[in-house]
Amino acid sequence: MDDVAAWRNDTIGEAAVKALKKNGFDASYVKTGAEAAALVSAFLKKGATVGFGGSMTVKGLGIQGLAAAAGCELLDHNAPGLEPDAKVKILKRQLTSDVFVSGSNAVTLEGEIVNVDGTGNRVAALSFGPAKTVVVVGVNKLVRDIDEAFARIESYASPMNNKRLSRPNPCVKSGVCMDCDGDTRICRAYQILRKRPLGTDFTVIVVGENLGY
Ligand code: SF4
Fold this sequence. Notes:
This protein is of the alpha/beta class.
């Protein structure tokens, strides 16, 4: 990474952390994904149940492997070979997990966390339930405000996730949201965390690299 790109990442990353702290979140900025993984590891204690919200960022950082190595019980509804009933049980157990680890669709420079879900498991867990919540976001997820957050989701994150999940929605052809209306629509539960939800223990780790969609 050249010096100018590093400057930009550090500057907006630190600004996002400052705003998140102002909104009551525990937050920190690290330059690399490896540093972020090390911070998450500190929360992964032997025997703990660890829920995963389905994040490509978390997957890319190898957090599942770190949790398994630490002796945690993994609650991953995307684990291969799960029957539908088993998947639902895991989704419900995630809501009361010891640690819930997630990415996010967007974080604003005003310290807000913005997500759009299909099932709603992630936005539910980010609101209330887990004993500890950890969100990891790359600088590519940082946007100026709520309007930019939803623009990012509609023009980038959701179409990318539709493609990743092979959903037959119009954004897969257009590359941008077409506000579809069918049963396969994955954009259903819209959430803005303007402040840390009361009663939650919530850490946000902002990383000076591009991570996930
Ligand atoms: S609302 Fe429909 S078209 Fe828009 S991003 Fe979501 S799934 Fe794609």
